[in-house]
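Materials and Methods. Structural model of Molybdenum transport system permease. The 223-residue sequence of Molybdenum transport system permease from Campylobacter peloridis was retrieved and submitted for structure prediction as follows.
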Amino acid sequence: MLEVLQNIDWNPFLVSIKLSLITCFILFIFCIPLAWFFSFKNFRTKKILETIITLPLVLPPSVVGFYLLILFSKYSFLGEFLEKNFNITLAFTFEGLVVASCIYSLPFMFNPLYVAISSIPKNIIEASYSLGKNAFVTLFKIILPSIKPAILNAMVITFAHTMGEFGIVLMIGGSLSGETKVASIAIYESMENLDFLTAHVYSAILLIFSFLVLLSVNLLSKK
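The predicted structure was written out as tokens:
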């Protein structure tokens, strides 16, 4: 056991944390105006768009990963366009993992923010407008301070979900050490090689890390 701990490869955990942080940041910036828009606007296709956004909650990761892999490949219109014009390759790259994670984790960030913003009384928003505050000031001075618990909840859920992703990261990123090989892939490969001790150590580290993150958030929420 001691020998395994000394020789452990920390790169998969670093890649997982990096991927989770970037995904959380991008989705937070994207979902705040999106949740704001959905909360206060009514349009014909609203329910259809909401369904599309929440679809990853019920779709198996392998299904999402399969179609994204086809979309990201250099033989698709998008993949060919990005490679020819911007020299960007999404399949089996860290950048592709980020895009795939943002798509698959979108509802975990969007739903808590959407519910929280929708629950704010509209007369508070109208009062802010009547005092001459524009939408930008209202959002940052009124809305966001009022939904701090929901923001924290959305960030933690999205971070934890991204840390534990397996199917979609395997389909899109493969297992490139130091680039796309995340902790869940490292555990899977250890099991495939019948190296149960290493798999146990990796799993225990991920379990302890997840527990500490959730415990910290619960303590902060209580305060």
